[in-house]
Amino acid sequence: MHPLRFYIISDSVGETAELLAKAALSQFVNSDIEIQRIPYVDDFKTLEEAVLTAKENHSLVAYTLVKPEFREKIDELAKQYDVVALDLMGPLLDRLQSHLKQEPVLKPGLVHKLDEDYYKRIEAIEFAVKYDDGRDAKGILKADLVLIGVSRTSKTPLSQFLAHKRLKVANVPIVPEVDPPEELFQVHPDKCIGLKINADKLNHIRTERLKSLGLDGSANYARYDRIQEEINYFNKVVEQIGCKTIDVSNKAVEETANAILNELKK
Predict the structure, then answer these.
(1) First to last CA, the chain
(2) Best label site of 6, 88, 154, 188, fewest CB within 10 Å?
(3) In three state form, how does the secondary structure of the chain look?
(4) What is the pLDDT of residue 109?
């Protein structure tokens, strides 16, 4: 037996209709309906195929189609094939047209153009996650900005914060035992920023971090001589790259992010 399906037909992405369908279905506790989008429908043939697919699967259809001729066609097809089809866009467009006394432009996908800023932010956030902590060196060459620093210099939260400013940020940990990826020396120095921190501050941060994990605060990770070794190595890498540095010792993430943005503007 086929699972129950709810087909979303749209002349754009279909995201709006899917969100609305999910919100409605959440009110039915025992409903087990699979939502399937059929996006970018732009001709009658595809429209008919979509309705026939719903018919074969004994499914409901909801649609967001802005062009009247498409709404009329799917209404006709739904009656012809005995399929329940719900118009999520038409009634609202008609009411708004009447209230505003203005003709709609009837162009699919406009909401996504208006939300372009939102999608750029999402893309940047996904980028920051994918290329966090040196996971994939390929991200270094694709990034708008590369952050380098020893452990506990807020590389990850900074990457996420800057992603909300639509910057694609990769970050790379600097560890004496591991050679930095060669890509780090291929990017322009202006696209790379080193996060400096003084040894006393880093010692305190790491000691507290170990204690919060229930570990011994005197472990090698928090030892002063180990920290100094890492900082010295970090300084050598920065010198090799020729990039600028920002001291994060006494700065909150927002302060450091603003300092980085100011550097990028320069």
Answers:
(1) 63
(2) 188
(3) CCCCEEEEEECCCCHHHHHHHHHHHCCCCCCCCEEEEECCCCCHHHHHHHHHHHHHCCCEEEEECCCHHHHHHHHHHHHHHCCCEEECCHHHHHHHHHHHCCCCCCCCCHHHHHCHHHHHHHHHHHHHHHCHHHCCCHHHHHCCEEEEECCCCCHHHHHHHHHCCCCCEEEEECCCCCCCCHHHHCCCHHHEEEEECCHHHHHHHHHHHHHHCCCCCCCHHHCHHHHHHHHHHHHHHHHHHCCEEEECCCCCHHHHHHHHHHHHHC
(4) 56
pLDDT for the residue 1: 46
Binning pLDDT at 50, 70 and 90, where does residue 258 land?
very high
Phi, psi angle pair for 137, to nearest 5°: -65, -20
Closest CA to 160 of 147, 172, 169: 169
The pLDDT score that the predictor gives to residue 113 is 52
∠ CA 5-9-10, rounded to 5°? 150
* Helix 155-163 vs helix 116-130: crossing angle, to nearest 10: 160
Tell me which residue has tokens 């790491």: 206
Asked whether the beta carbons of 47 and 77 are under 8 A apart, the reply is yes
Q: What is the pTM of this model?
A: 0.60
